[in-house]
Design goal:
Elements: H1 3-15, E1 17-21, E2 24-27, H2 28-56, H3 64-89, H4 98-110, H5 113-128, E3 136-139, E4 142-149, E5 153-157, E6 163-167, H6 170-173, E7 176-178, E8 186-194, H7 200-213, E9 224-230, E10 235-243, H8 250-268
Antiparallel strand pairs: 1-2, 3-4, 3-7, 4-5, 5-6, 8-10, 9-10
């Protein structure tokens, strides 16, 4: 087949109208044109977001969460304007999409509530910033560091190096614990029980020495010991310490303090009791006449 004839047939296939939107015929060439431009638009928007967050605002006083939010807003704006320009340059009259917009509106009303709700929640998160990239959060049963806030969902990295995708609506409708919202200092409580008859003032000094020897415990505010209650089997105390370094690994700090407390108590003869119960068995009187 001559090359010219092959090209002519390819041109006819690409320019053959598939359907009409208003008075504009939609061809295969138009679809390919729109598809290529949309791919380039998404690529450019992603690059621009990274540039704004990592370079343009890197030397400002904005923290990483604010920079990420600004980059995301720029990306959404570019995508919105870019899609309008692509549709217009493809020759599609936007007024012909009114029927489609109405159908989409019905779909949103019936089946896309969660998607729209998560998107709006993402915008609220970016403007109000109840959570930011780098925050340590707890929502439902998920605990970890916020590594990315998207339009629909937020990525939380746990201590097990597992990324959990959390819908943005969770952060608006549920109770959220943010360990770094205003201050990075967090207080940890370590309950301790000692046997009745123990010198509680001596135990207090031992607990404070253990806390002061732990490098992740802050000296200001200082650690304190509280005598909470006379328990069934033990005198109940609580060691309270402050830390900034252990917010992301609180289990490690509590474990280190527990190890040190146990070793110190064993070295100084302080008894850690365990629950004990005394059971008295009374014999049943024999019944007469049996």
């Amino acid at each position: 087949m001559p090359q010219g004839l092959w090209l002519e047939r390819l041109k006819n296939v690409l320019e053959a109208p598939l359907l009409k939107m208003g008075g504009t015929p939609l061809t295969l060439w138009t679809l390919l044109y729109i598809g290529a431009l949309v791919i380039l638009l998404f690529y450019f928007a992603a690059k621009l977001r990274s540039w704004v967050a990592d370079r343009a605002l890197a030397r400002t006083r904005f923290d990483i969460g604010a920079r990420q939010a600004a980059g995301s807003m720029v990306r959404y704006l570019i995508l919105f304007l870019g899609l309008l320009v692509i549709i217009q340059t493809a020759g599609i009259d936007l007024t012909s999409l009114n029927v489609l917009a109405g159908a989409v509106g019905i779909g949103v009303g019936f089946g896309l509530q969660n998607i729209v709700g998560n998107f709006i929640s993402g915008l609220i998160i970016m403007f109000e910033r109840p959570i930011k990239v780098g925050d340590r959060i707890v929502v439902d049963d998920v605990e970890g560091d916020v590594v990315d806030i998207g339009a629909r969902s937020t990525v939380v990295l746990t201590n097990d190096n597992i990324n959990i995708i959390v819908p943005n609506s969770k952060f608006i409708t549920e109770n959220v614990v943010n360990w770094k919202y205003n201050d990075t200092k967090v207080r940890f409580r370590i309950p301790v029980g000692v046997a009745y008859g123990s010198d509680v003032r001596f135990v207090e000094r031992l607990l404070l020495e253990v806390a002061q020897a732990e490098p992740d415990v802050l000296a200001d505010p200082p650690p304190v010991v509280r005598f909470l209650a006379f328990g069934d089997s033990a005198l109940e105390l609580e060691l309270r310490v402050w830390s900034t370094n252990a917010v992301n690994r609180k289990g490690k700090l509590i474990s280190a303090l527990n190890f040190a407390i146990y070793d110190t108590f064993r070295e100084h003869g302080v008894v850690i009791p365990f629950p004990q119960r005394e059971v008295h068995i009374r014999s049943r009187p024999e019944q007469s006449g049996t």
